[in-house]
Design a protein that fits this description.
Elements: E1 6-10, H1 20-32, E2 36-43, H2 54-74, E3 79-83, H3 85-96, E4 100-104, H4 109-124, E5 128-132, H5 154-164, H6 203-208, H7 213-224, H8 231-234, H9 247-251, H10 257-270, H11 275-297, H12 319-327, H13 333-345, H14 350-363, H15 368-378, H16 384-395, H17 410-417, H18 422-427, H19 436-439, H20 447-453, H21 468-489
Parallel strand pairs: 1-2, 1-4, 2-3, 4-5
Organism: Azospirillum palustre
Family: Belongs to the DNA photolyase family.
EC number: 4.1.99.3
Length: 490
């Protein structure tokens, strides 16, 4: 009598190497000769408040294509099903006689609640249902401060993690996976309509990215081969390729943080001159851990300000201003370059993310949740904890946030981090011929300079939709008013 199959439920862990659920399945398969069924479910009817955005759906299609190829090469094809996950699993168990379902944990509040309910249902039926950690260096509930509670400030969190963390070495992909016979019926990936067609807005994504585990490992290797050495100084320069650009691969689990951690530490050991850059880079991985730590302990993070003084902040409603920001038509070149980079490539340099977020929140005085939602739909690296935590950080309403009175000046930020204007020229080509002195403030350029550059303000490039100095004063006045009321109430 053949052994009952083992289902490995892939989610945001779309890789074979260092995949704890898959490793456990392969080990059990080797011990008892059980087939392994790799499964991905396009989750529907879950009521998830944060379904995949458009750019994430594009990435998912490419990632599943490559995962399917890898699974087939290892012997067991990837099974695609869609629907409510619990119902899909129960149907597949009935079809195949599977007695074990393994998966790697997710950490968004709606997902953790749903996963717990599914595990309970499966165990009640006598199914071996187990989950593992594939996405974080440390589970959020295991990292505690000296009082035994959660950390609320990043620096002590990171010091604790750096001093105590010893993540297990990454595991290799299984040598082979035994396929079930007969193979269960699978959806065709194309039937899921993950790709945009009318219109097809993904040309820039296709040009910029190659999803998948192989591309993730190649990108990490290229980054650690040299660029990481200057990461500490170059990471804030959007005009230079100074970052790893690993964020979408991490978001979809095509590479895991343990793989990054050990590869980076190995690079620093082998080439000591890289060590300072490696430490700064790993600190950014630590920031990702911190955001997931916050989300676990404050599940309201994506929706509500953690600093309750901002609960009734008098945000403006300005549809025209929001649309100008979304389309990269604010008249501030560094802001517009960032928003156009986002639309074209599904990604934006981290320094510029802070600049555009500050502009939306503190210049336009629009709710940070508007930016959070736009980023979620347009970023290929959408990560609920990261997205929500970073927007609250800029808005000044998180637990360890930049103060609200820190207002980014888009002209000075552009001049400092894009001094020659190369980044702006790449994404705002109508300003391409402006000299560096004026490219971050074209409205201040002499008429003859604009004429020679072929720039017609208000025609082919907008005039600023607001005066930054006036907007800054308005924002600070509102903040000080709210602060005064809060102090009086205290």
């Amino acid at each position: 009598m053949s052994a009952s199959p083992i289902i490995v439920w892939f989610r945001n862990d779309l890789r074979l190497a260092d995949n704890p659920a898959l490793t456990a399945a392969a080990q059990a398969s080797a011990e008892r000769g059980a087939p392994v069924i790799p499964l991905y479910i396009l989750e529907e009817e879950t009521g998830d408040p944060w379904p995949l955005g458009g750019a994430q759906r594009w990435w998912l299609h490419g990632s599943l294509e490559r995962l399917a190829t890898c699974c087939a090469r290892h012997g067991s094809p990837l099974l695609l099903r869609r629907g409510e996950p619990g119902a899909v699993l129960e149907t597949l168990i009935a079809e195949t006689g599977a007695d074990c379902v393994l998966w790697n944990r997710r950490y968004a509040p709606a997902q953790t609640a749903r996963d717990a309910a599914i595990k309970e249902r499966l165990k009640a039926r006598g199914i071996d249902a187990r989950s593992f950690n594939a996405s974080l260096l440390a589970e959020p509930w295991t990292v505690k401060n000296k009082s035994g509670g959660p950390f609320k400030v990043f620096t002590p969190f990171w010091r604790h993690l750096w001093a105590t963390l010893d993540p297990p070495l990454p595991t290799r992909a299984p040598a082979a996976l035994k396929a079930p016979a007969p193979a269960p019926a699978s959806d065709a990936l194309e039937s899921w309509d993950l790709l945009p067609t009318k219109p097809d807005w993904a040309a820039g994504l296709r040009k910029r990215w190659v999803p998948g585990e192989t591309a993730a490992r190649s990108r990490l290797a290229d980054f650690l081969d040299g660029p990481v050495g200057v990461y500490g100084t170059e990471r804030d320069r959007p005009d230079h390729p100074g970052t790893s650009a690993l964020s979408p691969y991490l978001a979809f689990g095509e590479i895991g943080p343990r793989q990054i951690w050990h590869a980076a530490r190995h690079a620093a050991d082998a080439r000591p001159e890289l060590a300072p850059g490696v430490e700064v880079f790993l600190r950014e991985i630590g920031w990702r851990e911190f955001q997931h730590h916050l989300l676990h302990h404050a599940p309201e993070l994506p929706d509500s300000p953690l600093d309750r003084r901002f609960a009734d902040f008098p945000w403006r409603q300005d549809a025209a201003g929001l649309q100008a920001w979304q389309r990269g038509r604010t008249g501030y070149p560094i802001v517009d370059a960032g928003m156009r980079q986002l639309w074209e490539t599904g990604w934006m340099h981290n320094r510029v993310r802070m600049i555009v977020a500050s502009f939306l929140i503190k210049d336009l005085l629009l709710p940070w949740q508007e930016g959070e939602r736009w980023f979620w739909d347009t970023l290929v690296d959408g990560d609920l904890a990261q997205n929500a935590g970073n927007w609250q950080w800029v808005a000044g309403c998180g637990t360890d946030a930049a103060p609200f009175f820190r207002v980014f000046n888009p002209v000075l930020q552009g001049e400092k981090f894009d001094p020659q204007g190369d980044y702006v020229r790449r994404y705002v080509p109508e300003l391409d011929r402006l000299p560096p002195r004026w490219i971050h403030q074209p409205w201040a350029a002499p008429t003859e300079v604009l004429r020679q550059a072929g720039v017609r303000l208000g025609d082919d490039y907008p005039r600023p939709i607001l005066d930054h100095a006036v907007a800054r004063d308005r924002a600070l006045a509102l903040y000080n008013e709210r602060k005064g009321k809060a102090e009086t109430a205290d």
